[in-house]
Specification:
It is globular and about 115 Å long. With about 775 residues, the chain is mainly beta. The strands form 12 sheets. Strands 1, 17, 21, 22, 23 and 24 form a 6-stranded mixed sheet that branches. Strands 4, 5, 6, 9, 10 and 11 form a 6-stranded antiparallel sheet that branches. It contains 8 helices and 49 strands.
Length: about 775
């Protein structure tokens, strides 16, 4: 069984104040909370028995306070109060009282502000906080300059973090007797000593606090704590994907686990699914876990009709026009704020709204409201289908790329059930941003026979960095051949994988680079290929074995082969073949070879060297110049695998294709230019190039030449984004400037008055510079 947000077993979250607290309030109510008066005293604010202890998380939350003990009112013994009474003023009363705020432990000194009847009674931000003692207790006294009014509203404030080390409060223990006062371990509370009654009409005011239970906490940490309080085995719950930090969240009433999690799921955009007896929390917006071909989704009981894709959608009138979110705003001392998003078109007048105890900025609240509106429209398009146990890895809460007649549709599975007949039925919600689409596309009514299986791991990939001039690329690119199998034999059911890349091989740092759909045609050289024998090479035969991918090379016309319409890579040579002959068992002979393409050498090749067909089934990874010479780590996550258990492969880009970056233009040189000289474009009877220099600001660097150019000859210049290679002595990562010498660079900016300062790029390594010129300015 697996579906979104099912009931979570275990005890309720946010249970009532119990143990020592409940016992004290219930058993000693008459003589502790309301001591016998000698004169008619002012009223004491009530304490509510059984009120839930709040669960609070993050650095900014606002909570109510529940009084758990009071000394009762007593007349003030201060000299000023006695003098005022002699002059006819009414008696002034003071009290000591304790207030419980939440289930600890919280960090020491967690009270930021205390509000009494809406006014600030205490503000810790205006003065330096005292240090906590060994048990995490923080004590504020008049010596610390309590900020409100005359600083006589109370004498001292003692803040207890609710850990397992805190001891009974001395004031409470003095009133109840040694050994009779509870320590309230597990409850974050504070004690106010000497609270004056006069500012509040001789009654204890209603208190609220602005609190900081933790300095910082992630959404995953919050959920883990909540699940633990529900009695679940947290080792069966995966929250590793929920790394966003939460500004604040609280639960102030008794509730069940699902209800407690829903506000977090809405704000932080994740799904909850029961998987294998545990819970998985999956962020939305992730790329598809894998691709699922149409023929794999034909599971059905004998005699039943095969399932078809259906995309029902609700009528427009049922869709919301306004979505509103009420949240906790830190800019308003964590009071409630509301943001909304409105649909610009449509005839619907319905609205949706919700309230969450999550601390958000106004901009963040507006973004969540916009997503609520967006999901209400996209989510109306749902899919229903079925498969069998061979696709048992499908999980609720995960996103998949499902094949439909027009291509692939991104679908988030919302419910999954398995019957006794081994048929797995599931529903999914469309996860694309076409909110106002006028038609929901259907799918083919005929479905192929079952042929489904787990995808399994990918074969060791083949990395290819094509040289300058390779067609079909808009910039430097690493081509990656990927297929599924055990390294020798292809897995015919392998449908693709997600490609992840990292610069440090730390699992949490991998980023999704894209999705590989289907296998590349790849294999190995099966017989020695001698060096090139001309174009075309009609003497030698290339024999290849593609068993690891099951792919098939293709013949092509002499003209297409000559134009490299279907190139192959063998070892480090690019070539094409006019004739491909199958000789059995995934083994092929390629003849009439056009060799040494794109400047590569037509050398001999040994048995076992890599063979790849360079077509649309090759994964393309756009290569930034900052990665040249730096080891990159790749993981290829197929169906049934996780990022953590996928094999890591490395590749270090050489930068062979980086010379194609940056725009180029041919311009006549008005003076001789050296190799790799920075040049200035200027007008001298037409567009001309000359050496740039920083002796002033009239000759800034606009580009550079790779080869020397004679005066009067045309030079090919490269502009921003290209890489200057063949240099020496550079410091990787350092910024370089235009030099005062002709066409040169320097690591030190010119400093003489009138000279020009212009950043020209960053060193990629000791011999290459990424050319990115800035604006030239004069040294004052």
């Amino acid at each position: 069984m697996a579906s979104l947000a099912l009931s979570i077993a275990g005890t309720a979250i946010g249970g009532p104040i119990g143990g020592a607290i409940g016992g004290m309030i219930g058993g000693m109510l008459d003589n502790i909370l309301f001591p016998a008066p000698t004169k008619a005293p002012p009223a004491i604010t009530s304490s509510t028995y059984g009120t839930a202890r709040a669960l609070a998380y993050g650095p900014e939350v606002r909570l109510g306070c529940n009084m758990i003990w009071t000394s009762g009112w007593r007349k003030s013994s201060e000299k000023s109060a006695k003098l005022a009474q002699l002059k006819g003023a009414p008696p002034q009363y003071v009290t000591d009282c304790a207030f419980a705020c939440g289930a600890g432990p919280w960090q020491p000194g967690w009270v930021i502000k205390i509000f009494a009847n809406g006014n600030v009674l205490f503000d810790s931000t205006v003065v330096a906080a005292p240090a906590p003692d060994a048990n995490g207790v923080v004590t504020w006294t008049a010596d610390y300059g309590l900020p409100h009014g005359s600083q006589k509203d109370f004498d001292s404030l003692v803040i207890y973090p609710g850990n397992n080390l805190q001891l009974p409060d001395p004031t409470i223990e003095a009133a109840l007797g040694m050994g009779e006062a509870p320590a309230y371990r597990g409850t974050a509370y504070f004690v106010i000593n000497g609270l004056r009654g006069t500012p509040w009409g001789n009654s204890v005011p209603t208190l609220q606090i602005l609190a900081s239970p933790q300095a910082k906490i992630s959404v995953g940490q919050i959920i883990t704590d909540m699940l633990d309080r529900c009695g679940l085995d947290t080792t069966l719950c995966s929250t590793s994907g929920l790394t966003s930090l939460c500004k604040g969240f609280f639960i102030d009433s008794q509730t069940d686990g699902v209800s407690a999690l829903q506000p977090l799921a809405l704000v932080f955009n994740f799904d909850i699914a029961e998987v294998g007896g545990g819970l998985r929390f999956s962020p939305r917006g992730e790329s598809p876990l894998c691709t699922i071909e149409n023929f794999r989704l034909a599971g059905h009981a004998y005699g039943d009709q095969r399932p078809t894709f259906e995309w029902p959608r609700d009528p427009d009138l049922q869709l919301p026009k306004i979505a509103a979110l009420t949240f906790i705003d830190p800019a308003r001392d964590c009071q409630a704020n509301t943001q909304s998003e409105r649909r610009a078109t449509g005839s619907s007048q319905s609205n949706i709204s919700t309230s969450v105890n999550v601390t958000l900025t106004s901009d963040e609240g507006r973004a969540v409201a916009a997503r609520m509106l967006w999901e209400a429209h996209v989510g109306r398009q749902t899919l229903s289908s079925a498969t069998d146990d061979r696709m048992g890895h499908l999980e609720a809460g995960r996103t998949y790329a499902v094949e439909v007649p027009f291509g692939y549709e991104t679908v988030r599975i919302t419910d999954r059930t398995r019957g006794a007949n081994q048929v797995i039925e599931f529903t999914g919600s469309r996860d694309l941003p076409d909110i106002y689409s006028s038609n929901a596309p259907g799918a083919s009514a005929s479905v192929a026979d079952n042929g489904v299986a787990l995808g399994g791991p990918a074969n060791p990939p083949i990395f290819i960095e094509p040289p300058s001039g390779f067609p079909g690329l808009s910039g430097p690119t690493v081509l990656i051949a990927i297929s599924g199998g055990d390294g020798a034999t292809a897995n015919a059911q392998w449908g693709g994988c997600n490609v992840y890349v990292s610069t440090d091989d730390v699992t949490g740092d991998y980023q999704l680079a894209g999705v590989q759909i289907g296998p590349s045609v790849m294999g190995k050289v099966a017989a020695v290929l001698a060096a090139s024998g001309g174009r075309p090479d009609t003497v030698h035969t290339l024999k290849v074995d593609t068993s690891e991918s099951g792919g098939e090379p293709a013949s092509q016309s002499p003209l297409d082969a000559q134009d490299a319409q279907m190139p192959y890579m063998v070892g480090d040579e690019f070539l094409t073949a006019e004739v491909v002959s199958a000789i059995g068992g995934n083994v092929y002979n390629l003849t009439r070879l056009w060799r040494g393409l794109y400047g590569t050498d037509g050398d001999s090749h040994s048995i076992g060297e890599a063979f790849v067909r360079l077509d649309s089934a090759i994964f393309r990874f756009a290569l930034s110049d900052v990665y040249i010479g730096r080891t990159l780590y790749f993981r290829f996550v197929s169906v049934g695998e996780t990022l953590a258990n996928a094999t890591t492969y490395t590749y270090t880009p050489t930068g062979i294709a980086s010379q194609t970056a940056g725009a180029t233009q041919t311009i006549q040189a008005s003076q001789g230019l050296a190799t790799n000289a920075l040049v200035n474009i200027w007008n001298s009877g037409g567009s001309r190039i000359r050496n740039a220099n920083a002796t002033g600001i009239t000759k800034p660097a606009n580009g550079f030449v790779r080869t020397a150019v004679l005066s009067g000859a045309n030079g090919l210049i490269f502009t921003s984004g290209a890489t200057i290679t063949g240099l020496a002595g550079l410091t990787p990562g350092a910024t370089y400037y235009l030099d005062t010498s002709a066409g040169g660079i320097t690591p030190t900016p010119p400093a003489v008055t009138g000279e020009g300062v212009q950043v020209v790029g960053t060193a990629l390594d000791a011999t290459s510079l990424l050319f990115q010129p800035g604006t030239i300015t004069a040294v004052p």
